[in-house]
Structures are given as structure tokens and as C-alpha cells.
């Protein structure tokens, strides 16, 4: 219950006649006033059955000496009120491809205890226009307890460098637990890859290696440098996709690896095709959703 908000809904006599065209039926017994002056005629039955807040409000004794419906002035502007009322009145829902509409709609739906608009917003949150801002979606999903949406958003966030200052504002919307989980998820991918690159089938660059063909001492510093670049790349883009393409074919550090040869017998030190496949496998096996 959010009855503390009742004082924000000022009830007074109807003064204007700027009705929203979809909500202008004279038969409707309640008039809602948006912050920008647009009025919406709605049946009290609809509001009572779709909103806990209105149900509580209409259960209070009503002063109705006048035939004229009273106007209940709301905090929301007409775009948000229209979206909310379309959802609860069974009309076509508006385009919700921007957070600028979705976030205030969710806020209002939660305030007025309207599960219908909340469920519609949740379903729409997983569509491409909203998924294209994964951190904003992640914050929204955590705020409303949408675990599946949060997981989907966490996967999409892997193409972002969450340490970059440009994401600070949206990350500030998160509470500490989901924020720490997100940082850990991104860092884990980097750390797991770093660990895997030091294991078989990759060469051991710790020193004392010898050429498998002629037995001469070989130095794997080119592999060490390539690993360093891969780990750095995972830090700024934990998805790791740019490591395989174009990284391992175009980076100078990769080229140096593929060109490296034993100084004695000139045999190549690294099997390029096999190394590429092994690195790609390692990246593919990293966790793809947040815990
Ligand atoms: Zn050799």
C-alpha cells in the first residue's frame, strides 16, 4: 500500500475540458488530470479492479453531492498516464522503446499497485531497443526483482567496459549487492581466461623450454606478450569477441607469435590454427550470465 501518496493526488472540481481523445467518454465517472493539464475520463470500476491504490482510495467514503465528476490530479504527465491507462483498459499499448517512457511508467505502476502494466513493461523490457542499453536494463531488472531480465542484461553488458566513466551515472542506480555482482562477473571472465591461457595445451612460458624438433632452448616471450594483450582486452570488453577477430589475426603481438621460429632449426614455435581454436574454446567456455 502506498497511501502516503494520496496527498499528492489533489481532488478538485473539473475546470478544463482538454480530454485525451482515447479517454473522453462522458459515461466514465472519474476524471484523472495529468501534470501537463490533459484530462482522462475513466470508469472507476476499471481503476478499482486494476489498481490497489485506487481500490483503497474508492473504499473511503466519497463526497458526491455534485453530478459533475471530480478531477483527481496525478503526479504523472499525460504520456505516462496514457500508457498506464491503455494497459489497464485493454487498448493497444503504446510503443515502449525508450527508457524515458518505461521508467516513469514502471514507477507509476508500482506506486498505484497495478500488476498489469508492470507485467507488460517486463515483457517489453527484453526487446532489442531496450536491450541495447544493458546497464540501464540491468539496473531496472534489479530494482523490480526481474531475475531473468537481469541475467539477459548481464550477458549483453559484456561488450561494455563498466569501469569507463560514461557508465558511472547508470551504475549509481544499482544497490551495492547487484553492483558488486556485476563487477565480479566481468572480472571473473578475465581471470578465468588468464588462468586457462597458462594451462595446457598452451606453452609454458616460465622458462627452460626446448624446441620439440631440435632440442635447442627456446624463449616463449612472444606468447607471454600476446597473453598480456588478451587479458587487457578482456578488461575493457569481457565478451572477448574482439580477441578472436580481429585480435589474433591482426594484432602485432599475435603476428609476432605466428612468425616466431626456433633460432636453430627455424621450426615455427606455435601452431597458429590449433592455438586459435584453443583460445576460442576457452572464451566460449567462460560463464555467460551473472550468478
Ligand atoms: Zn628447433
Layout of helices and strands:
Blueprint: E1 10-13, E2 30-33, E3 39-42, H1 44-50, H2 52-59, E4 70-73, H3 78-89, H4 99-111, H5 115-124, H6 128-131, H7 134-144, H8 147-156, H9 168-171, H10 176-197, H11 221-236, H12 241-250, H13 252-259, H14 272-284
Parallel strand pairs: 2-4
Antiparallel strand pairs: 1-4, 2-3
Protein name: BTB domain-containing protein
Domain BTB: 28-86
Write up what this structure looks like.
Pfam families: BTB. This is BTB domain-containing protein. InterPro entries: BTB/POZ_dom, SKP1/BTB/POZ_sf. It comes from Hermanssonia centrifuga. This protein is mainly alpha-helical. The chain has 14 helices and 4 strands. Among the domains are: 1-90, Potassium Channel Kv1.1, Chain A (2-Layer Sandwich); 186-284, no CATH class. It has helices at residues 44-50, 52-59, 78-89, 99-111, 115-124, 128-131, 134-144, 147-156, 168-171, 176-197, 221-236, 241-250, 252-259, 272-284; strands spanning 10-13, 30-33, 39-42, 70-73. The chain has a 4-stranded mixed sheet with strand order 1-4-2-3. The chain starts with 9 loop residues before the first strand and ends in a 7-residue tail after the last helix. Zinc ion binds at residues 211, 213-214, 216, 262, 264-265, 267.
Which short descriptors sum up this protein?
binds zinc ion, mainly alpha, SKP1/BTB/POZ_sf, 51% helix, rod-shaped, 291 residues, Potassium Channel Kv1.1, Chain A, BTB/POZ_dom, four-stranded mixed beta sheet, BTB domain-containing protein
